From TrEMBL, chain B:
Keywords: Iron, Iron-sulfur, Metal-binding, Pyridoxal phosphate, Transferase. It catalyses: (sulfur carrier)-H + L-cysteine = (sulfur carrier)-SH + L-alanine. Belongs to the class-V pyridoxal-phosphate-dependent aminotransferase family. NifS/IscS subfamily. It comes from Micromonospora lutea. The keyword Iron-sulfur applies. Its cofactor is pyridoxal 5'-phosphate. InterPro entries: Aminotrans_V_dom, Cysteine_dSase, PyrdxlP-dep_Trfase, PyrdxlP-dep_Trfase_major, PyrdxlP-dep_Trfase_small. SUPFAM superfamilies: PLP-dependent transferases (SSF53383). It holds the Pfam family Aminotran_5. Residues 3-370 form the Aminotransferase class V domain. This is Cysteine desulfurase.
């Protein structure tokens, strides 16, 4: 097959490209330039789109002996991921930009362009399994598993994707990179959000949304217990950085229970008030088999690297409804709910939807 | 493999490569006083004389440098600084928007960091500068002008400027004129003295010499403040141990390129015209950019409506055809060509452009290979650029 390897400049995508070459594919490497001004994004090992990362990706492609190009996706990335990120926070939701980037950039804009140019598939260094049965499964390395942020891919997108790393642990990937003479073998993992240079999400949002002071309200008493500079800066389940004027009557810590953009209010309460047993979600996508016509028993995950709980999931038109068998704390609107079917060969992604409440 | 990117770099001539290797085997620093040093010095000075003779300059006007970018920077910054040192009011640099980045960025650097003013000369739709525009500029700002810099022939679209006429206008106002003649030497007649310019950039690897060596021809009466300080090896304007092997090979290549220029250009133009004709046949909606007649004989530059240049490049590269989209930023991201934008092209036409440049190893087989691959590539590139329905 003619395949396009998306190469971030990190160790995972370099080894994924190497494996695609070894598997006999005709591989072309592409680095995505996502920053309008690369200097403003994260530099060095933690980033995904700096000049240094671009050079690392190019060097890996050299070692593999494959053609390499840089594709400018900065405008698309800005519109579909960065602006969306800000708008979601402004609406009181908690977005996952990596998931959005997969959905709109890597497996949409990039994949579409690749297919139009005659490529059969896109190869990435995501840690997830996608076998001949077409089912998306968790990586063998559960700590590094990225099936959650890939669960938004449609059948068509999955059919044109190759994830060569799903059967390996991160340690094995690093080991292989070293054996293959790839200089990125010991490059630190990327984490956090690539377009927030200093890791200060609140500052990033404040710059774009401005300061809009409002009340922090106690859910139990209805009393105003503090002030905030903008409700958008909070996320459900958050405990730190609340700066409350008054301790709770019972002296126990309080958490963000909800954000109401309309009234610019942040509501706080005790930990147990965070517990949720019912989750509603929209835009369901079902790729792990035929769409169920009744409730099915499965497992659900409600945030990246979050806990996994048993649930009964019902898909009905444009909504998804989950009855959790065990309550979960800190379920935030805007995050994805991903349904899995437990499987000894790797838990299978059944479907996903965007949490509304 | 069809190499159609000679304007980026062209293969070394056999005689230049042999001269390089032979000289590189010899030990000797041209500044040393002993026999080995004298031998190296002799090679350098013979080369200086050969370059001077080939380009209509005096030997003392040849300053060897590390290549075109250094020569351009030395001319733009060095002459501006020297002019300003004598007359603090000479703060204006006059240039055009179609210059190579080695000139463009040096000019913008002076503006940003040294308080220079810039007078940008307009170009027409073919990328041509007009002497009247320079006259108007100098009539208004001549007393503040430090330097005029304009390229002899454009590296992207191939348009040849009327350098003699432009230099004459600058001379009327007593303003030194620098020209970047990197693409011109070997393709069109270039005579330093006859052109009336004060400074001229030439480099080795565009005409069959090695990469990393070139020269600035600098009129004897023209002062330039050095960029590099040290031993002062080159007229106290440029320091650094002389690269005898590179300089010898450079001189061999310059001499060969100038000597064979007329015949070479005629053959090259015939092949290029064939390429243009056949590209038009294969892709009728193609637009030829640059001056239709006054252009470098090896240059063919097109816009392919509905395509992105970088997609076309990828598809042609996959079939063994090497060409160029024009300018690329340091990250390798394709930018719309600043040359085409200055010529009045819109963003789409600028982004859809590709340059095919022929050189001394080009053959009809290269053109055949391009024509065989092009229609399919254009087709695919168009599909890749077509707007898609949102998910």
């Amino acid at each position: 097959m003619r395949v396009l390897a998306a190469m971030s400049g990190g160790v995972d995508s370099a080894v994924a490209a190497a494996r695609a070459v070894q598997a006999g594919h005709d591989v072309t490497g592409v680095h995505l330039a996502l920053a309008r001004n690369p200097q403003t994004y994260r530099t060095g090992a933690r980033g995904c789109c700096t000049l240094e990362d671009s050079r690392d990706a190019r060097r890996a492609a050299d070692v593999l002996g494959i053609p390499f190009y840089v594709w400018d996706m900065a405008d698309r990335f800005h519109a579909d991921v960065v602006d969306d990120f800000v708008a979601e926070y402004a609406a009181g939701r908690t977005p996952n930009p990596c998931l959005r980037c997969n959905e709109k950039i890597k497996f949409a804009a990039v994949l579409d362009r690749a297919v139009a140019l005659g490529f059969d598939a896109v190869v990435t260094g995501h840690h997830a399994r996608l076998g001949p049965d077409g089912l998306l499964r968790r990586s063998v390395d559960e700590a590094k598993d990225q099936s959650y942020v890939l669960a938004v891919l449609t059948r068509e997108q999955l059919d044109r994707s190759i994830f060569p790393l799903g059967d390996s642990t991160k340690a094995q990937v690093r080991q292989e990179a070293a054996e293959r003479g790839l200089a990125v073998a010991d490059k630190p993992d990327s984490h956090d959000i690539c377009f927030i240079a200093d890791g200060d999400t609140r500052g990033f949002l404040a710059q774009r949304l401005g300061e809009t002071p409002g009340d922090v309200v106690d859910a139990t008493t209805g009393a105003v217990v503090g002030q905030h500079a903008g409700a958008y800066a909070y996320t459900v389940g958050q405990r730190r950085g609340l700066h409350l004027d008054r301790p709770a009557p019972d002296g126990r810590p309080r958490y963000v229970l909800s954000i109401t953009p309309k009234t610019n209010t942040v509501t706080v309460g005790p930990a147990e008030a965070l517990e949720v047993s019912t989750v509603r979600a929209t835009r369901p996508l079902w790729t792990g088999g035929p769409r169920p016509d009744g409730p099915i028993e499965c497992e659900v995950q409600l945030r990246a690297h979050g806990v996994v709980v048993p649930a009964a999931v019902t898909v009905d038109g444009d909504t998804l409804h989950a009855e959790l068998r065990r309550p979960v704390r800190g379920v935030a609107a805007g995050q994805a709910i991903v349904a899995y079917r437990p499987d000894p060969a790797g838990d299978v992604v059944l479907g996903s939807a965007t949490i509304t409440g | 493999m069809a190499y159609l990117d000679h304007a980026a770099t062209t293969p070394m001539l056999d005689e230049a490569l042999e001269a390089y290797v032979a000289t590189a085997r010899e030990v000797g620093n041209a500044s040393s006083l002993h026999a080995s040093g004298r031998r190296a010095r002799r090679r350098v000075e013979e080369s200086r004389e050969r370059v001077a003779a080939a380009l209509g300059a005096r030997p003392s006007e040849v300053i060897f440098t590390g290549g075109g970018t250094e020569s351009d920077n030395l001319a733009v910054k060095g002459i501006s600084w020297a002019r300003r040192a004598v007359d603090a009011g000479r703060i204006r640099v006059i240039s055009s928007a179609v210059e190579h980045h080695a000139v463009l960025d040096a000019v913008e650097w002076l503006e940003r960091h040294e308080g220079a003013e810039v007078g940008w000369l307009p170009v027409d739709g073919a990328g041509r500068l007009h002497p009247e525009a320079l006259r108007t500029e100098l009539a208004e700002h001549g007393d503040r002008a430090a330097l005029v810099t304009a390229m002899w022939a454009n590296n992207e679209v191939g348009t040849i400027q009327r350098i003699g006429e432009l230099a004459a206008v600058a001379a009327e106002y007593g303003v030194p004129f620098h020209t970047d003649a990197i693409q011109a030497v070997g393709q069109v007649p270039v005579d330093f003295a006859a052109s009336g310019v004060a400074a001229l950039t030439v480099t080795g690897h565009k005409l069959g010499g090695p990469v990393g060596v070139g020269a600035l021809l600098l009129g004897r009466e023209v002062a330039a403040v050095p960029l590099l300080h040290g031993g002062g090896q080159e007229r106290d304007v440029r320091s650094g141990t002389l690269d005898a092997a590179g300089i010898v090979a450079f001189a061999v290549a310059v001499e060969a390129a100038v000597k064979g220029q007329q015949e070479y250009a005629a053959g090259l133009a015939a092949l290029r015209d064939d390429l243009v004709r056949r590209v038009r046949q294969a892709v009728p909606e193609v637009v030829l950019n640059g001056d239709p007649t006054d252009r470098l004989p090896g240059n063919a530059h097109f816009s392919f409506p509905g395509c992105e240049g970088d997609a076309l490049l990828l598809l042609l590269d996959a079939q063994g055809i090497a060409c160029s989209t024009g300018s690329a930023c340091s990250a390798g991201v394709a930018q719309p060509s600043h040359v085409l934008l200055a010529m009045g092209a819109d963003d789409d036409r600028a982004r859809s452009s590709l340059r095919f440049s022929l050189g001394h190893t080009s053959t009809t087989a290269d053109v055949d290979a391009l024509i065989a691959a092009l229609p399919g590539a254009v087709d695919r590139a168009r599909r890749a650029a077509a707007p898609r329905t949102p998910r």
